[in-house]
Amino acid sequence: MIHRKSNGVFIIAATPFTDSGALDLDSADRMVDFYLEMGVSGMTILGIMGEAPKLTSDESLTFARHILQRVAGRVPVVVGVSGPGLDNMVRLTGEVMGAGASGVMVAPMPSLNTDMKQKGYFAQVCNALGPDVPICLQDYPQTTGVNFSVETLLDIFAAHAQIVMLKHEDWPGLTKLSRIREATGQRAGRLSILTGNSALFLPQEMQRGADGAMTGFAYPEMMVQVVARHLAGDVDGAEDLFDAYLPMVRYEQQLGLGLAIRKEVLHRRGVLSSPKVRAPGPALSDLDKAELTRLTTRLEAKLAAFS
Question: pLDDT tens, 191-201?
């Protein structure tokens, strides 16, 4: 199970589709094997970048079960269960936990525009899922439109012991991260903090007390090495390696287009049979693909020199 000291890189997994838009479970198998080979500490599926809202309930369950079976307990798997209805959330949680998930991730509903609503919602979620299900709370206001204050998050953490992990991706959010880390263990119990935003601020986040990353950058080996070097005290080495990848990190971070870029890279790396993003979704132009080729070529040259 995920816990308050979980660390490392929990990769946000893509959901592979065929060119026609059907689930591609063969690519899913290659994807799991690829992520594990790259050294990830865990996986997160059915997140926002995993196109969860575009899947039917049956597809979500089929995909989750397939991934859990392929992983076979080698690393913890967190399953996104966010949705408008608690009944569906409870049903999906029960199914995936029974199939071997190590916890679930819950993002707030877009209508939670006051502190009281935010606290009330997570009280309902925790009560519905029960105390034995470890929860990762996702703080991603750029997508959800919900802005948590530090004080509200700390109150939620203190009130609900099963929330053991925060997926932090507020932006700008470095000061928020520092304040939460400073307060956890005092006002609220210590919890694992994993960061998102395509790893754009990963070195600084690690220096401010993050335990690792939970994002889907298409070069997971970079995140694994950066986190490991930070945890070993090699801050400069971590930043030097990160700097080599920074143009690619920045390019993939483009809002609206980033998922298509990520899937194209995974396709080029032989992981996905198709870079298909399920409709409605973006597609890369020929110019986009040419830019990506140039960035990839330059990255490979930098890594050769870095070695």
Answer: 999 999 999 99
